[in-house]
């Protein structure tokens, strides 16, 4: 059965933290020891309320981040962002950037995807300026973190564009490549930051 056939018959269910937890344990379950898997567990406390499918992107961000104006004012670090939004494509990134206008206030948003933008350009923008929100694809964000172009030490929120579906009705975690890159990014640094309590995860 195709995903689209199943979806047409049943209304989409909003993603919950357990969905991501299960995805990670399935992904790592085959080739990790029990101790390693334990270290990759996301504590419930790191999750923000999930989107119940009634929110616009801006209204969701307002709900999970009521102190945004203060966070925005206090953020002065280059090479880093306060909020990182991960989605499945460049096109979807642009949609989310447009729909964040009502929330963002006086802050700078950076596009972090590979389409038409060289990684060197993004690295030099991050080095020279202060950005508050970055929206992009997991592959490019991961590459920037690996090359020390993006530092996650002052990141407080990571939002996964979990419920949105493309024309083929696939969510980001239904696309094997995007799923793998997202899990790699989580494993590389985000899970550790969540466990330490410095990053909160939201499923939009």
Automatic annotation (TrEMBL):
Pfam families: CMS1 (PF14617). InterPro entries: Cms1 (IPR032704), P-loop_NTPase (IPR027417). GO terms for cellular component: 90S preribosome; nucleus. This is CMS1 protein. It comes from Calyptomena viridis (Lesser green broadbill). The lineage of its organism: Eukaryota, Metazoa, Chordata, Craniata, Vertebrata.
